[in-house]
Amino acid sequence: MTDPLIPNRHIVSGDTRPAIVRVCAAVFGDKVFGGRVKFAVTAVLACALSYVLLARNPWWIFGLEDRFTVPNDGGSDKVCHFIGYFGLTLVFLWYSTSKSIQFAVLLVGTAAIHGGATELLQQHVPGRVSDWSDFQANLLGIGVGTASGLFLRRLVRGEESSTDAFGIHAGDRSQLTTVRGEPRKPGSTEPVSLTREAMTGEQISEISFRVVNFRFLGIFASVILILFGSVYAIHGWQVRRNARDLRTLGETAREAGEIGRAQRFYSQYVGLVPGDVNALADYGVLLDEGGLSPEAGRHAFMVYENVLRVDPAREDIRRRQIQVAITLGRTTDALAHVEILRQTHPTDGELDFLAGRCHEMLVDFQAAAESYEAAIEHAPRRIEAWSRLADIYQNNLDLKERARSLVDRLIDENSLDADAWLSRARFLEQTGAIDEAAADLDKARELDPDNAKILLAAAEIGYAKTRAARLAGRDGLVERTALETRQLIERGLKLSPDNLDLRLRLVVLESHFGDPQKALSLLESILAETPGESRSQILLADLTIAQGDFVRAREAIARLPRTPGSDAMRLFLEGRVAMASEKWQEAATVLTEARRYQSNSNGLAERTDLALAQCFGQLQNSDEEL
Length: 626
What we know:
Layout: E1 11-12, H1 19-28, H2 35-54, H3 75-95, H4 101-122, H5 132-156, E2 163-164, H6 201-211, H7 214-241, H8 243-255, H9 259-272, H10 277-289, H11 294-310, H12 315-328, H13 331-344, H14 349-361, H15 365-378, H16 383-395, H17 400-413, H18 418-430, H19 434-447, H20 452-471, H21 475-495, H22 500-513, H23 516-529, H24 534-547, H25 550-558, H26 564-580, H27 584-595, H28 603-618
Helix pairs in contact: 1-5, 2-3, 3-4, 3-5, 4-5, 8-9, 9-10, 10-11, 11-12, 12-13, 13-14, 14-15, 15-16, 16-17, 16-18, 17-18, 18-19, 19-20, 20-21, 20-22, 21-22, 22-23, 22-24, 23-24, 24-25, 24-26, 25-26, 26-27, 26-28, 27-28
């Protein structure tokens, strides 16, 4: 048999492979199904898969549930994605059997683009969500389909298929350019081996045309563009028609307490109807109510900003925006919104208080004091305004007598408010008036005996009194006050079992005046529930240092965040580890560095100074001993 294109180029036929292999090769090749049949099957499958992935309810044609499909969070959904794209890729490669490998790669890339595009478009389809794990399942199916298709393609175009005398596949003219041979002798009937240079221009053009069919590629690209364009247009029409249903689904999910699903539906709706300011505001509130993680907080902030840009009169959204901005540390933005509202509400004590918070965060204590004073004047029952103003007088403006007078006036004007007595008790505790603070807490407990905050404050006062009794050597008083403090904490935990402050206070009490092993066990249960909680890590380091377990202590210290606020405690704990290991010079160096991060009013500063004094004493450096 001779090649019709090149005279004297003989083709050798024959296939000695096993029967099952020949059958697979025949089915996957062009012997059973022609090129037009393959093209039709491929196009129908691509359209069907697009419809299933982008239709609101693709199963209505079978008479199945005529309602929005609910996203499937289980593994069966991923299996369906895998099977769909495995089949699509396999059919694409089935169609490209007689084409070049470059064409096959192009089809595989088209399948990957299809998988990504449908996932992106699904977020705008009612009842559907765009899921990264679905796209991963698509890619996995494409990968397995590609491997299977290439294997079957190799069977069809294998070594046993029709080849010429040089082992070149019939129909694969791309290899001709690499063939070299000698000129044919005059009158010889042997097959000729042609180089590209030896072929005529007509032969080269005909071979090149068969290798790359630009006309077909153009038609195929046009079909793909028309296909995707049609799907996108139909999808857009469908989504716009059902936009109202998206909001209904969001409201239903919100009423059912499914905040995550409600957020997704509202996100899709406002993406389709950006001019609906009320829906955009509701979406922001959903983000706000869903718990402000840093990412959700930033998203809620931007949504609120968009609402206020379109409708500046939405005071409810502006007030929410202030709280979100303060939470995110965007104090300047929060203060700007506060001042806008204060212009129309000059006697609103809550706005005065928020202005004070912002000025305090901006370290403008004089302006903060003025705002808190206005808040007390306009809202005298806003107890936190009194306590924050007293702290500023006491610690920042050096107005100690004025601070004490202020907390006394707080009690005069709010004598029946348990929180007022609690606020003054905390102030008195900071000034060292422990007995007066304990008396105020007794009064607060009379007014509100089941308040967990008051019980926690009473436990903290009890712990301070227990420490003082131990320093005074009064062992009987230590045992009694420790028991009373433990009872307060246990009562508070019965009222509020998940109160982290009460649980940590019990750990501290047990570690110093009870059973250290019990304290460690309690702390481990807390860490299992909240592994990233800094105070728990600090307590774990403190306990393990006391027990001599320095490896575990260093692990706990390493888990503390690297922020200016935590660096002082981290260095202090590292210094304690060095002290416990009797590395006094190293401890003194680390503690000196820790002292640079602490203010003199900080309780940690006093502990650091005492530790430094011990280090310098051990180093016999009396000149630096504090």
